[in-house]
Write a structure and sequence with these properties.
345 residues; globular
Amino acid sequence: MPHESRLSFSREELLANVPVKQPLIVGGVRCHGGFDADGNYHSPRTLWRNPAVRAWQEQHLRTSPLPLVEIPDDAVPPHSISAEQAKFLIREGVREPVVRILTEIAIVEGFGAMIRELPVPPLASFVREDVTATALEHLTRGLFEAHARDEAGWEQEGGHRQMWNAARDAALSNPHISPEIFAEVMARRVPEPAQMFPALDAPVERLLRFMVNVLAIEVFARSTFAWAEDVLSDPAVSDAPVEAGSLIRYIRSDEAPHVEYLRTALSEISARTLYGGGKEFSGKEVVDALMNRTLRAMIRRRLEEQPASMRDVIRRTAKRADVEDIIAHYDALATPWTAPARFVN
């Protein structure tokens, strides 16, 4: 059995599954994870991954004065459309906005496969201190690959992309999916920002920025899970409240290892010295700066861009003479939230 005193693991160990009695079958497709003899769900690839991450976290806390990297709760806004707003739209027969949100989430989950393609420069080329037996050392030894498989599936096994689609189809009885949604998601992809630390090689900052961004996305997703479970578990608006709600809970369970390994690796970076271009940098300075920029951008999108986009979708798809009244009622059901002053430009 896994033992948390270990700090080095093979790729095969980090991809190993907890033995299960029954697989998770969704819409006739075998998805990852499964159930033990008592019916408890077990997330995929966590036999060794979970104890490994706990061991690396304990090592960091023993050897560094810095705490683990944390995105504070007050920096995480509620979901861009509240559960009450979503339920109101469904009850009014304006289902397209909710269908689009769920479809877009599934599409973005599919993009998670790209994490396995992320170039990782040799760690010794930019980290001054030793990284043996750390989460950092294992990014390309199973951690990124496990993350990619969780999100997009692997071979004949479905992942989060298939599970989100299945939850949507069950709850909303196989709604029509506009072929424009994928193109719209692709069109919104954010261009690569300017380097904050030009002395570091571009691939180094790109790696750290990617890890910070994905961690923030995973933490912000907590409000998305709460929103989706609330809406899709409500029998007043969901055609399959038990099945759809359970799928969201399984996905939420699967995402927990992603948050933990990313914050562990970024904590290890924060506790070390980075170098490049003849200069040295505090890893904490680099991680904090990248995190602050990411959080500012994500908060702005949730507070400004996403609500405006949702109103546009309602206007385009409601096909009702009283659409402005619908939007006014919709706006009144929004969850009030004020961004902390430190994240306001």
